[in-house]
Amino acid sequence: MNKRTINFFLVLSFLVSTTGIRAQDDDLLKLLGEEKPKKERIKYAFKSPRVINSHSMEFLNPGTMDFRILHRFGQVDQGYKNLFGLDQASMRMGFDFGVMQNLMFGFGRSTYKKELDAFLKYAPIRQSTGPWSSPVTVAFVSGITMDGLPWADPSRKNFFTSKLGYYFEAIIGRKFSETFSLQVAPTMVHRNLVATVATPNNVYALGVGGRLKLSQRVAFTWDYSHVFIGMPDSGYYHPLSVGFDIETGGHVFQLHFSNSTGMNERAFITETTGRWGKAEVRFGFNLSRVFQIKKNKKHKE
Amino acid sequence: MKNYFVLAAAAMLFSFSATAQKYFTKTGKISFDATTSSSPEKIEGVNKTSTCVLDTKSGAIQFAVLMKGFLFERALMEEHFNENYVESNKFPKAEFKGAISNNDAVNYSKDGTYAVTVKGKLTMHGVTKDVETPGKLVVQGGKIQATATFNALLADYSVSIPGLVADKVAKTAKIGVDCSLELLK
User: Fold this and answer.
1) In this complex, which of B51, B62, B72 lies closest to A296 when CB atoms are compared?
2) Given an 8 Å threshold on Cβ–Cβ distance, is A40 in contact with B76?
3) How is chain B split among helix, strand and coil, in percent rounded to 5?
4) pTM
C-alpha cells in the first residue's frame, strides 16, 4: 500500500464521518438528546372516586366538586307488582370535593336511617412510572356516620354518641393496564351502639373492587366486601355489587345490581340483608356530575 | 494528494458550520382550540413544553409534543382529551417533520420579520397527514420567534367525537404554534 492510497482512505474516512453527521440531520430532534425519564403519575384507574359503593383508589381533581345522586330500588324478587322493585327507592345525595391531587373530602345524606356521613380521603402514595415510582396507590379513608332516626326507646337515657359510627379503610390499588384496574381495601367499621349484647361493635372486612374497560366510555365494575369478623349469625350477608360505568360527557352513570341498600361504609358493610342466590338484589344507579369550582390557571400565565 | 486535503478540510468546515446553524427550544407553546359557537365552554388546551428544532441552512423544521402536556382550564376536559379523544397512553407524542419551502427568502443573520411557508408531515393519534401552512419568523438578536396557525380536521387523524357531543366540539381544531428558538450549541 503506497502513501497515496493511505491518504486516500484517510480522506475517505473523513468524508464518511462528516457525511455521517449530515445523515443524522434527518432527525433534528435527536440533536437535543434523549429526555430524562420523569416520574409520572398513573391517572384514571377508575372513572370515579367510587367503585360502586366503596371508595376507589382514584381521587377527584383539585378544584372540582362531584355532585352524586345515588339510587337503590327495591328487591328484584318483588316481581312485576312492584315493577321488580322500581316502585321503591332509597337514595343518598352527596357532595365530594377535590382539594389536592391526593386529598379529598365529602359528605352526604341517605334516606336509609336518615343517616349523615362524612369522610376524608388521603393518598400518601400514588401509582406512577419513572424513577422513584410506586407500582400501587395507597390511600386511607376515615369516615363518620350519624344515624338520624328518633330514639328507639326514648324512655331510657340516650346519648348523642350512640348515633355515631366510624369507619377506617386502607385502599391498595393498581391500574394494571388501560383496561384493567384492581384494588383491595381492608376496612374496619365501629359502631358506638349496637342492637344486642351479642352484636359486636367492631366489624372487619376486606373489600375487593375492580374495573374492566369494555370500550372508550363503558366499563364493567364490581365491588365486593367480605366481612371476616363481626358478621351477625343470621340475616346479614357480604355485599356484592356489579355494574357498568357509562360516561357521557360531563356525567358518569354507574348502573348496577347490588344486594345492599346502604350507601355508606357503615350501612353496606354491616347491614346488607339481601342474598344474590335468592334474587334479593336491587337495581341501582349512581349519577356523578363533576363541576369545576376553581379553574386551573396553569394554562394561562 | 493536496486536493484530497482541501476536500476533507472543506467537508469538515461544512459539517461544523452545518451543526452551528441549528436553533431549538424545549419550551415551545402549542395551543389548540376546538370551540364552536354551540360549545357550552371553551375547548382549548395549551402545551408549553413542546420541542422544536430548526435547521436554518436547509430550512428543515421539526416539532415534538407530549400529548399529556396539554393543560386545560377544566380538569375533566383534560381527562376526556387524554382518555377518550387523543388516547395519549397509546399515542403519547405528536410530531411534525417538514421544511420551510421558501427558506432562501429568510436572512437569518439580519433582524427582521419574514413570512414563510412550512410544508411537512404531521403525525398525531397514530395518523400521518401532509400539512402546509403560512407562518412567520421574527429574527431578533440571535433568536428566532416562530409562529403559525393552521387547522387540523379531527376526522383526518381518526379522533372520533361521540354523537352526543358532536355539535359541541368543532370538527376542525385550530392549532397555534409559538416558539422562541435559541442557537443550539
Assistant:
1) B72
2) no
3) 25, 50, 30
4) 0.81
Cβ contact B67:B78 at 8 Å: no
Q: Which residues pair with A100 in a beta bridge?
A: A103
Query: For A23, phi and psi rounded to 5 degrees?
Result: -65, -30
Q: Do A249 and B165 touch (CB under 8 A)?
A: yes
CA dihedral sign, ordered A274, A280, A282, A283? positive
* CA pair distance A219, A179, nearest whole angstrom: 8
Find the angle CA(B52)-CA(B142)-CA(B102) to the nearest 5 degrees. Answer: 60
Contact A237, A272 (CB under 8 A): yes
Output the nine-digit C-alpha cell for A17.
Answer: 464521518
Q: Is B168 helix (H, G, I), strand (E, B) or coil?
A: coil
Alpha carbon distance A291, A96 (integer Å): 10
The residue ranges of chain A whose pLDDT is under 50 are 20-24
ipTM of predicted complex: 0.77
pLDDT, position A24:
45
Give the other-Cβ count within 10 Å of B88's Cβ: 19
The pLDDT tens digits of the residues spanning B103-127 come to 888 888 889 999 999 999 999 999 9
Instruction: Indicate which of B68, B73, B184 best probes the interface with A, i.e. most A CBs within 10 Å of its own CB.
Output: B73
* B7–A11 C-beta distance less than 8 A: yes
Domain ranges of chain B: 21-183
Q: What's phi and psi for B69, nearest 5 deg?
A: -80, -5
Choices 2.60.120.10, 2.40.128.110, 3.30.70.20, 3.40.630.30: CATH for B21-183: 2.40.128.110
Q: How many Å apart are CA A192 and CA B162, to the nearest integer?
A: 50
Query: For chain A, where are the alpha helices, taking DSSP H only?
Result: 3-24, 265-270
Burial of B156 (0-12, 13-18, 19+ CB in 10 A): middle
CA A135 to CA A1: how far, in whole Å? 62
Q: Is A121 exposed, middle or buried (0-12, 13-18, 19+ CB in 10 A)?
A: buried
User: What is the SS3 assignment for B169?
Assistant: coil
Residues of A in contact with B165 (CB under 8 A): 249
DSSP B19: H
> For residue B12, is pLDDT > 80?
no
Locus of grid cell 379503610 = A169
B15, B26, B84: residue with CB nearest A22: B15
Residue identified by cell 369507619 is A167
**How far, in Å, CA of B122 to CA of B94, rounded?**
7
Chain B residues in contact with A218 (beta carbon < 8 A): none
